[in-house]
Amino acid sequence: MTREMTEFELLEELEPVVETNLNRHLTIAKDWYPHDYVPWDEARNFSAMGGVDWDAEQSSLDDAGMAAMVTNLLTEDNLPSYHREIAENFSLDGAWGTWVGRWTAEENRHAIVMRDYLIVTRGVDPIALERARMEHMSTGFTSATDGGVLPGVSYVTFQELATRVSHRNTGKACGDPIADRMLQRVAIDENLHMVFYRNLAAAALDLQPNRMMRVLVDVLRGFQMPGVGMPHFRRNAVIIAKAGIYDPRSHLDEVIRPVLQFWRIFDRTDFAGPGEQARDDLAAFITDLEAKARRFEEHRERMLAREAAGRQATG
């Protein structure tokens, strides 16, 4: 059985992989500018500048679009916490540090462009949004996983892909081609970040297969989106799931399964003992998630049918 490496050894062994994937990322990633994705000609002053303050009738977003946009933006706002997390789990030296800085700079553009869009289009109440930002960032974010390289790269692989799916579906749900274009651009970034972490985790699996397998089970069992601590997160998550923007089926079929397939988790022959047991535990976990996804879909169908019948009865 492979000896478990120390954190220092893992950082050293994985640094060439970080450097390779950093160079790949810098070659593929295209520069873009938040101001190019905002309809500035729709902007109006608020009362402090002699204009009119926000009113709900000014927003073109429905409940689902508003909940998704606010949730996604507040998630991006908490970037200082995420920077701290990955800096503590990884390193600020060498290629590791270069990646942490680059990732942080790219992620910051997402909050910039989304906030500018929402304020200019008056999509949400800017005062409520700012209060929620203050509360969420003051609370911060701490990963539910144990610290270290392996839990770190495992969690962010799934989290970046989940965020990509959420942004992409939010853009479609807004019913605005400008929002759709903007969030499609953001989703491209998130996908490139996911690929970086997914490749790094694949190398970690080759180095420490049994240990990584145990880590993956723990990460997926305890997985929570980074916005979990924000104001009204549970309520907004229900609205978002009901609209099909991000729900248990999305999480299983568009996030978990593609990543596990890329890593060939159920085809590998290098697990032994605890690693084999962890893979069996993961298979049982996925079976349970499948059942939960089906139950949620059935519940949503019944709920939507009742709502449609209610509208017909009163219509």
UniProtKB/TrEMBL annotation:
Binding of Fe cation 2, residues: 107, 160, 190, 193
Note accompanying the cofactor annotation: Binds 2 iron ions per subunit.
SUPFAM superfamilies in the record: Ferritin-like
GO biological process terms on file: fatty acid biosynthetic process
GO cellular component assignments: cytosol
GO molecular function, one term: metal ion binding
Keyword annotations from UniProtKB, A to Z: Fatty acid biosynthesis, Fatty acid metabolism, Iron, Lipid biosynthesis, Lipid metabolism, Metal-binding, Oxidoreductase
Cofactor(s) annotated in UniProt: Fe(2+); Fe cation
Keyword Repressor in annotation: no
One Pfam family per UniProt: FA_desaturase_2
Keyword Calcium: no
Residues engaged in binding Fe cation 1: 76, 107, 110, 190
Family assignment from sequence similarity: Belongs to the fatty acid desaturase type 2 family.
Assembly behavior: Homodimer.
The protein's name in its UniProt record: Acyl-ACP desaturase
